[in-house]
Design brief:
Blueprint (H helix, E strand, L loop, with lengths): L5 H22 L1 H7 L13 H22 L5 H26 L4 H24 L7
Amino acid sequence: MKNINWLGLVAALVIGQIIGAVWYGAAFSAAWIRAMEMTEADFVGTEWRMSLGFVNMVVILIGLDWLIGRLNARSWMAGAKVALAAFVFFALTVVSLDYICAAGNLPLLWIDGGYQLLTYVTGGALLGGLKWKPKA
């Protein structure tokens, strides 16, 4: 925990929450609800799940920061590239399982996969490039 880039992690967490609010709110809310084959009424009383999404993102960002550190990818672009690789090899494959194995629908794969892609690459760039400035 002592080697975690806390500045990058907090920034990536805040930006990730904003991306999620815009992505699943204004941008794709109606399409996502249709793809889930649900209605807005189905989500009443499930606001607590947002806190689980927050915890999930913290775990992802700690893992990305660890990977970025292990690969010495401490720049904006290097962090984004590592995060893109992590997305392709891990996040996208997991998101795709529902589509592949459980006859999930393609629009849901695009919406959820697109969100993951955006948050991984943005988070990786912030974790790789955002650092505390040493005191002069």
